Amino acid sequence: MTGQYFCHAPGRVVALREAAAGSPAVLLNGIHFLEVDPGQRRLRVHFVHPLDLVPAAPLTPANVEIRGGARVRNPAVTAIAPENEVLTVDVATAGDFSRYRLRLVASAGTGVPPDGIDPALAEIEFSFKADCPSDFDCRPAATCPPDPAAGPAVDYFARDYATVRRLILDRMSVLMPEWCERSAADLWVTLAEAIAYRADEIAYFQDAVGTEAYLGTARQRVSVRRHTRLLDYPFHDGRNARTFVAFEVEPAADGQVLNGCDPETGLGGTLVFTTVPGLGPAVSQDDADTGLRAGAQPFELLEPVTLFSAHNGIAFHTWSDDECCLPKGATLAFLRDDPGNRLRLRAGDILIFEAMKSTTTGEKVDADRLRRHAVRLTHVDPEARMKGGVRGVSSPRRDPVTGEAFVEIEWGEGDALPFPLCLSKRIGGALVDGMAAVAGNVGLADHGVTVAREERPEPLAGGRTPRFRLASTAVALLTQQGRVRVPGSDEVVLIDRSKAASAALVCEMADVRPALEVRSGSDQRRWNVRRDLLASGGAANDLVVEVENDGRAFLRFGDGVNGRPPRPGEDLTARIRVGNGVAGNVGAEAIGHAVAAFGGISRVRNPLPATGGVDAEPMLKARLDAPEAFRRQERAVTEADYAEVVERDPRVERAVATRRWTGSWYTMFITVDRRGSETIDPAFEAALAAHVERYRLAGHDVEIDGPRYVALDVALHVCAKPGYFPTDIESRLLDRFSAGLRSDREPGFFHPDRLTFGEPVYLSAVIAAAMDVTGVAFVTPLTFQRLGRSPAGEIEAGRIAMQRLEIARLDNDPNAPENGRIRFEVETKGQAR
């Protein structure tokens, strides 16, 4: 149960011995360590206490399981023999080079240890090959490369009207050389600017019709939007930012709920805003209005948050171990519970892991603020009970040794921890704990504020379809709210709680919708906001929001064919949100206040920066990109079409399609090089076939298969520079030519994602990679060919050729030698070969 942590100073064995010596005594047994006999058919498992003392019921072979292995899977236990604190375990066959796990279970197929066995010491990881000779240090290297720095943002926006004014002033300088005044208050300059303004206005009206008729010349956003829609290009008006907001409350506020937005309109969520000096964490609406007028950036909660003081800062439960860390990629953890103030977590809640102290100094002020990560819980044990909409407590789980209450939490792979999180560490000889904590009471918020007063849209005269102006958008930008598409439909929602927390911050621009609500005054009928009216029927209550160049928003209704128009004289009311674009991309800890009708909120903050805020797309960019969207192939006819369609799936690195006649019809066989994996499992094959179905040509069957892997046999003679150990150089070479990730977390030379269909393996690239290793003087190839084949002049040709559907493979795995091998003969200068 403690395998999720990596601890430099395990203390569980000491805790069991102290518990047995305490008063009252807590007698539990557990695995201390394991030895493998030279024959690899017998294991000696050492326990903390003698086996005749605990457990009370003697262990049987059914209580011992061995799991794992690549070539030899799950070796069977044939017999066991206890003697004092040692349990001798005989296995049917020796394992391979993989890591195995021996565990004690109450019965076969269950994960519960027998009575009297500590769950934290009920299993142990080992290798049958531990006694095999090795030239390398068995201690694994732990490296944490720095995160790549983000590149700077570049904005190429430049536009003004001064051409006519410059022309007039230049002409006046020719006509009146003695006139040199250029002050804006000069009468001649004023007249020149008035004439330039009028000339620009006249020119605009003269050219408006012809100019707006073409995408390449249109100057109004509405015109560009309609042109690009015909090309199926999502020309956008920006998007608001999102962030996670954490609340800390006093016990008096336990159970209080902060409301979220209306899921249909995106309006009315609890208002939070950036810090304003002089205001407390919880403020009134009047104080909030004062802060917003002072320039604070507003946000509103998208989903309700139930507040509990126990969730303010939750500590980790480390099973009596010290110097622990939550490793990179973790999806499980244990949290410390307080019997007097219980945790009330449920699946779907959002938590934020954060470093609280520096790993070098141990001080809070030096804590790394980049070590923060949000997760959405998928499993909680024990989980808070729901009764009448109120969260109740469940029976606590307790550590059988210390009696401490704890809660086990899990989250999805999409929220896997992107960095190791240190929980405790010895600094200067002293143990520093509490180096990380978990923030609860977390809700997702997005940029913008709902305008309290309703407005009446102003109808515009003329036009084929009814248009109304939203006057309030002349002062502040209408919020363009990011949404996510419901899988398998065209509907969009604010949040998909089935996905990871990180997915809530990512929205496609095509799914952005304005945040507003429009109703008819007569019957309070709601009008639905759509991206366009092409799919709306003649009676549909749909409308489109169009934004002009100056940011003002207009409502466009249907014409009776696509969408229903309002009745003549119909009274419309609108509620809107304002706030949009990059202004909402505030930094971490920028938010500091919340509008609440109750007291007890002691702190409001956003541990992570707000992201996703995008300004309105420049029209010049749409003119460049929209024609490419028109040329995008949306049906598959040829082999190249099918390959291109499959490569759109982010899980596919490259695909090759082959059309074959199967006796009755044509079948398109699509060979897929999967990204980050070599297996084509049935689930992946079914998902890929469903992706291709919408593009498939009638009469074509589609079959998905994997590539033909070609195992390689490579041997190099390496001469080392003076002062370097051959074993160190060989270790670096094996790391460089790995089929997985290297120690610096970069892909190895033979990583599956670096090799693809028909790509030869060049000897020059292999030698260059070897020469790049520290300590290598020069390299001579000894073997360079396909595994199991006779040499065919590959060294002379300088490459190993691959056929159209073949991919080179060199795993160098002792458990699977048929998947390729690489060997190095490392010698120092002057040593005879």
From TrEMBL:
Q: Which domain of life is it from?
A: Bacteria
Entries under InterPro entries matching the protein = CHP02243
Name of the protein this chain belongs to: Baseplate assembly protein
| Native source species | Azospirillum picis
